[in-house]
Amino acid sequence: MNQHVAPRLDRRAFVIGTAAIGTGLAIGFDLPFGGPEAVRAADGTPEVNAWVVIRPDDTVVIRIARSEMGQGTLTGLAQLVAEELECDWSKVTTEFPTPGQNLARKRVWGEYSTGGSRGIRTSENYVRKGGAAARVMLIEAAANEWKVPVAECSAANSVITHKPSGRTTTYGKVAEAAARLTPPADVKLKDPKDWTIAGKPLKRLDTADKVVGKTEYGIDVKLPGLLNAAIKDCPVTGGKLNSFDEAKIAGMKGVKKVVKVGDTAVAVVADTWWHAKTALDALPIVWDEGPNAKVSSATIAAWLAEGLESGPAFVGNQNGDIDAAMAGAAKKVEAVYSYPYQNHATLEPMNATALYTADRCEVWCGTQNGEAALAAVLEGSGLPAEKCDVYKLLLGGGFGRRGQTDYVRQAVDIAKQMPGTPIKLIWSREEDMTHGRYHPITQCKMTGAFDADDNLTGLHMRISGQSILFSLRPDALVNGKDPATFQGLNPAGEAAFGYSIPNLLIEHAMRNPHIIPGFWRGVNVNHNAIYVECFMDELAHAVGQDALAFRRKLMANHPKNLAVLNAVAEKIGWDKPAPQSISRGLAHLNAFGSYVAGAAEISVTDGNKIKVIRIVAATDPGYAVNPAQIERQIAGSFVYGLTGLIYGGCTVKDGRIEQTNFDTYNSMRINEMPKVESIVMPSGGFWGGVGEPTISVAAPAVLNAFFAATGKRIRSVPLRDQNISFA
Hints:
The chain is an alpha+beta fold. It is built from 17 helices and 32 strands. The strands form 9 sheets. The chain has a 7-stranded mixed β-sheet with strand order 14-15-12-22-19-20-21. Strands 17-25-24-23-18 form a 5-stranded mixed β-sheet. Helix 1 packs parallel to helix 3 (124-146), helix 3 packs across helix 4 (171-178) and helix 9 runs parallel beside helix 10.
């Protein structure tokens, strides 16, 4: 699927490394043969268009620009292209074009970023058009060969048929001729109700290779003459590298070089990674940790708490007159919630392999954003774009962490100090855990106002805490405001607030500690869902109303939100008494363009042992490209959401993250996993995400069930810090 030896290209001929033969990877160069120009793949096969290569044996190679990290985007995108292409699905394979090739071809493959559950929903239109255009060209090529009108020909299952005569040919036989045709200016896409490949629960294309250990991840890269690097960055963000005593490890086994990396890190390069790590651990290093070394979880919490009470705030959603509603309230309910730093904790730690020479720099890695990784290579190498590239491999976990490129830049910086030698940089687990881009830390104060008839007339929600965009993409701030903070709380759009309340104010007091936040799977909806959905339960309880009935009264203007909530309530049996010793909880949200809801059944023993027995989840993503994969994503999201609820919390001491490995940052085990029942209910008319939205409803549904079981309201996570664990 990917090659490890980059092709060395001449405009008149191909000289391809043996590892690339047969991959079909497009290179974006013109071929010297008669007729219109064509672009050929590495095995000499001409591409029909940028998205489709068809070999003479009818193998269909579909290009995938987005990254695959276990979420199924690769298969889903292939289904969409294959649907419009009308090809034989059993002969489909895929490949990743490089971001360098994309740039050279004026971004023909579009965006490479894979995050925010956008892999399919923001590229579905143009990838489907790519498949449809290729089908039109293949049919036209066959019609030209037969000298018949195109309108008399049709395609199905990689076979083109001339309807009047019954003549047939295959895609592989006409692909060469099709490649020389002018692509159609416009194509009509199928109505999803007519899908035969998309919309079906097909097996994933990448599973078989994973099962037999054939899949290559970044950590698996092997190149001739490769050396390995281990790195240590300053343990306190904002600090610097002061000095290191290279002489103390000069004689250690396998050590080749010790290098400074930027202003904050040092790396050891050796023949094996273990030799590099062993030497690095023995290397005397002096850090200048700076003033951030005085920061702790307690000082951060105190600073954020101040933001709940005073200071400037950005308004994210507002209607009515919240001050008047509060002043005239017959009853007010108030609560303060908090959410901690959390680590992505990918099973494969950050790594990248870089090869630098004076006129070329190449990187092999898993990345969620190939174009951002390429930008890091350009910046680090100082070379122009046409002399750099990034070869994407499958990711051993992403969850948002591999959308950042710090590890790519480090690999280039090291390789630049050893020209001509491939350098594989692998972060140790401890480095990975303590230099992440963490789920942002926030607190939230909420106040609800009721009239004399127990109607909710006002809600004031004030979040104090970190902005991801402030740290990672300050150019995306809107007049200083971080729109991402208000995921699930917006007045409209793909992450809109799901309730209609006469008087509403939702605001953000931005306070940014030195620990760098990042896009952690589900991002801000994870804590926003807890804040809103647990507080909705508190409000319902305060006026003696059923949690579902209370929500329904506020959701009349939100039919899609209500539909998924009603679906899980019906499936869980909300209107019937729960079995003995079983308690239930609800939650819903609009996130990443989809409408999701969850209903949990739990039991609690000894007051602090939770057994999550069952979670019912409903999702309306608009369109379901692969329903079976959506069900897997829902189940997987609950692993992440429940892990975050019970175990997922990072604390700060002396300016640094305290959790350094899986012994102190745990993950739920299979025996702790509940039964998951999925309701996939696409209503059409929009494209939503599926990888992240349902994460958000797991924790509040369980927390609400915990209150039903114990009468104890939990307003902060992880539960391990409150001596609450899985049973």
